Hints:
Chain B: It is a single-pass membrane protein. Chain B: It comes from Drosophila pseudoobscura pseudoobscura. Chain B: Heterodimer of 2 subunits, IMMPL1 and IMMPL2. Chain A: This is Mitochondrial inner membrane protease subunit. The structure holds 2 protein chains of 2 kinds. Chain A is of the alpha+beta class. Chain A is built from 2 helices and 10 strands, in the order H-E-E-E-E-E-E-E-H-E-E-E. Chain A has helices spanning 5-29, 131-134; strands at 30-34, 49-53, 67-71, 79-87, 91-95, 108-112, 117-121, 137-138, 142-151, 157-158. The longest helix of chain A is centred in the N-terminal third of the chain and has 25 residues, at 5-29. Chain B is an alpha+beta fold. Chain B has a single domain (26-157), classed as Ribbon (Umud Fragment, subunit A), CATH 2.10.109. Chain B contains 2 helices and 10 strands; from the N terminus they run αβββββββαβββ. Chain B has helices at 2-23, 121-124; strands at 25-29, 48-52, 66-70, 78-85, 90-92, 100-102, 107-111, 127-128, 132-141, 147-148. Chain B is globular. The chains are: A alpha+beta, B alpha+beta. The A-B interface holds A 16-17, 19-21, 23-24, 27-28, 70-77, 114-117, 134, 137-142 and B 12, 14-16, 18-19, 22-23, 58-59, 69-75, 104-107, 127-132.
Amino acid sequence: xxxxxxxxxxxVRYTVAYAAITHCTFEYIGDFVLCKGPSMEPTLFxxxxxxxxxxxxxxxxxxxxxxxxxxxxxxxxxxxxKRVVAxxxxxxxxxxxxxxxxxxxxxxxxxxxPRGHIWIEGxxxxxxxxxxxxxxxxxGLIRSRVVYRVWPLADACGEL
Amino acid sequence: xxxxxxxxxLLYGLPLGITFFDCVxxxxxxxxxxMQPALNPVADVRxxxxxxxxxNHNSDVERGDIISLVxxxxxxxxxxxxxxxxxxxxxSTIGYRDPIVSVPQGHCWVEGDHTxxxxxxxxxxxxxxxxxTAKAVAIVWPPERWxxxxxELPRRRAPIQVAKTSHYN
Lengths: 160, 169
C-alpha cells in the first residue's frame, strides 16, 4: 500500500489549524448552548439552542436583566443559565435567616451584593435553584452572555 | 509576498498558540509574598511557574495542591494559593468570621503559605471550584530555583475533619 505522505500531512495540518480556530472562536467570541431544565421557563424552555457571546464583557460588563451562562457554584462540572438581578453594589432582598432559637417571622431583609459578585435568579421563581439558595456568585464563574435563541426556529429572537 | 506569508502564518499560528496555552498550560509570573516560602522566597526575585491546564476539566484537586484561580473579589485578577480543604471538610480558620467552617459542596478552602500576609479564604471564605483555572506544577525560572512543586500541606493547617468521601455523590 502506498501512502501519500504529503497529502496526509496536509490533511493533519489543516485539521489542527481549523480545530485551533474553532477552539478560539468558541472560547473567546461566542458559542452555542443547549438549554436544559425548567428554571428559566417563561423565557427559555428545555432543548432551546442559544447563541452566547463572550466579547462584550470587556467593555460593557454585566447588567441587571442579562441572561448569562455560569458555572454552577455547587458543582463545577455543571453550568447554569440564569438572569442577572443585581450586580455588585446594588441591593437585593433576601429571605431573613431563621433559626429555631429565635422564632422570627419569615420576612425579607435588605442586603448588598459584595464586590466582584453578582446576584442571579431564574425566571421561574418557584422552581429554580439560584442565588436565593447559594447567595451571590463571583463574576469569575460567568462564562458567557446569551444573545439569541436560534432553535426552535419559530421562537427565534434576539435580545432575550 | 513576504507580508502575505507573514499574515498567513499569523492567521494560523495565533489560534494554534492560544489553543496550546488553553489546553496544555502556560508560564506565569508570581507576584507578591503570599506563597512564601514555596514561591518567591526572596523578596525581589520573582518566580515563574508552569500552570498546567491539561486534565483539569473535571476540577479534581487534592489537598495540598497549588492552584491558580480567578479572584472572587476581582474577576480580572488571578491569584495563586494552596488548597487546604475540599468539599465536606471541616477546617479551622485564622481570622475568618467563623472559627470553624464546613466547606460547602463544590467549594474549596484555599490559603497562602505565608499565613497572615495572604488574601485568601480567611478573608473571603470558601471559593467555588469553578473559579480554578490551572494547577501549578513546577517553577521554571530562575534556573537555580528549578523544581517540581510538591503536594504538601503543613500539618498545622490540615483540616480538622476530612470528608469521608471526596465527592458528595
